[in-house]
Specification:
- The chain is an alpha+beta fold and 475 residues long.
- The chain has one domain: Amidase signature (AS) domain (Amidase signature (AS) enzymes).
- The chain has 15 helices and 13 strands.
- The strands form three sheets. It has an eight-stranded mixed β-sheet with strand order 6-8-7-12-13-11-9-10, sandwiched between helices. Strands 1-3-2 form a three-stranded mixed β-sheet.
- Helix 2 runs antiparallel to helix 3 and helix 5 packs parallel to helix 6.
- The relative contact order is 0.14.
């Protein structure tokens, strides 16, 4: 069957409208998406599991009349389960981890009519800010294949940027939606803690630091996707503040005059890369031109203290995942089955106590209160998503024993994005700028806990004032 040559002209909502009107069939959209993956994925390695037969069976069995009926969709290969398929966490240790049930979020995607036809590449256990797992190989940035697509949702972002589909599943435990959105020129919203469900297997990810959502080309796709996925499931340990409206409706509403702080600096006081400074200053000017009150200011962050507690929480969760897998396999995890950095993180966890874990959770809750106080003065905080342009592949090597160099570059590249995972605030990367080398530079906006609505209103205003959807990588 022929594909659909106008595929690029539509976002996910646009494609769904064509299906609803009978102008296109889901089979045609799927064929077009598959054709694009088959043609371009060898160049970028964004999709590592192909569920084409499952997708065709899904269509044949009849799709629900959901908001995204017939739209091709990809899941991230991290935590999210799809019955009958493998979720490997980017690791050889989980390479045969076939699910016997769906995650709650997967079920919500299916109920929305999305057609799941594969899974995207992720660094092992989501531990890196670049997607270069040893087992599956690196995902390349469609804007320049020598550069990283970001992590840990790098495969998802590369797939959307390359035009395989208009929106894809992603998750963010330390910047993992916003980092690849910035690196690949996409919109990426990290929702409020517990806005979307983690069940039925988990109550929270990384002690509540991780949130699942999507990367997209349009703001409205992200908003509509949150409409069909947000809200607690039965048995969830806690939930985000309830939102009774429609996030999609918020995108077209005027945000009003907002009080916005901004910084171009890292928390340690050093200046970001010149391209990033230029981008954030231009964003601040755009905001002022749109009528917002903008002033230079930033909340104080003790990066070393933050990193210590973040390491405790992530390390404990990584060690637990390895121990759980060892129990499932009935044997120990072999050294060659995990990457050097993963081993290091799990070994670090063995040096921390249960009291350290409690101290870390207390720390992130205190950070949430501290930032809530900051946002009594400011509606939004603007900062760089990344403090450097997208780095080259190989610069951060999870198999290298030079841990000092790895951590130093990570801190220079992504110095503070994880703080908003700790506080649980909604935070988004918006693709407003590209540098002279044609690489995207994202602007990160963070709002009050529970207030995605204001961020979506602002994002809609920015998208109208300085559109980006027409910008496509030559790949």
């Amino acid at each position: 069957m022929a594909g659909f040559s106008d595929y690029d002209k539509y976002d996910a909502l646009g494609l769904a409208e064509l299906v609803r009107n009978g102008a296109i069939k889901p089979e045609e959209l799927l064929d077009e998406a598959i054709g694009r993956v088959e043609k371009t994925n060898p160049k970028i390695n964004a999709v590592i599991f192909k569920h084409y037969d499952e997708a065709r069976r899904q269509i044949e069995s009849g799709l629900p009349e959901g908001r995204f009926k017939g739209v091709p969709f990809l899941l991230k290969d991290l935590h999210l389960l799809y019955k009958g398929t493998v979720t490997s966490f980017g690791s050889a240790a989980y390479k045969d981890n076939k699910a016997d049930h769906n995650s709650t979020l997967t079920t919500r995607y299916l109920e929305a009519g999305l057609v799941i036809f594969g899974k995207t590449n992720s660094p092992e256990f989501g531990l890196s800010v670049t997607t270069e797992p040893h087992h599956y190989g690196p995902t390349r940035n469609p804007w320049n294949t020598e550069h990283s697509a970001g992590g840990s949702s790098g495969g998802a972002a590369a797939a959307v940027a390359a035009g395989f589909l208009p929106v894809a599943n992603a998750s963010d435990g330390g910047g993992s939606i916003r980092i690849p959105a910035s690196a690949c020129g996409l919109f990426g919203m990290k929702p409020t803690r517990a806005r979307t469900p983690m069940g039925p297997d988990r109550g929270e990810g990384w002690a509540g630091m991780s949130s699942a959502h999507a990367v997209s080309r349009s703001v409205r796709d992200s908003a509509a996707m949150l409409d069909v996925t947000h809200g607690p499931a039965a048995g969830d340990p806690y939930a985000a503040p309830a939102f009774a409206g429609s996030y999609l409706d918020e995108v077209s509403k005027a945000p009003g005059k907002l009080c916005i702080s901004f910084t171009t600096k890292r928390p340690n006081g050093t200046q970001s890369h010149g391209d990033v400074v230029k981008a954030i200053e231009a964003t601040a000017k755009l905001l002022a031109d749109l009528g917002h009150h903008v002033e230079e200011d930033a909340p104080a962050i003790d990066v070393e203290e933050m990193a210590k507690h973040q390491g405790t929480l992530i390390g404990a969760n990584t060690l637990f995942a390895l121990n759980m897998r060892a129990a499932e396999l009935g044997r120990g995890i072999a050294k060659e089955e995990i990457e050097f950095f993963t081993s290091l993180v799990s070994e670090l966890a063995k040096t921390r106590s249960a009291a350290d874990y409690v101290a870390a959770t207390l720390y992130i809750h205190q950070m949430g209160r501290k930032f809530a106080a900051y946002h009594e003065r400011y509606d939004i905080h603007l900062s760089p998503t990344l403090s450097l342009p997208p780095i080259k592949l190989g610069a951060l090597n999870t198999m290298s024993p030079d841990v000092g160099a790895y951590l130093a570059l990570s801190a220079e590249y992504v110095p503070s994005i994880g703080v908003y995972n700790m506080t649980g605030q909604p935070s988004m990367s918006v693709p407003l700028h590209w540098n002279g080398e044609g690489l995207p530079i994202g602007s990160m906006f963070t709002g009050r806990f529970g207030d995605e609505a204001t961020l979506f209103r602002l994002a809609g205003q920015l998208e109208a004032a300085q559109p980006w959807a027409h910008r496509r990588p030559t790949i």
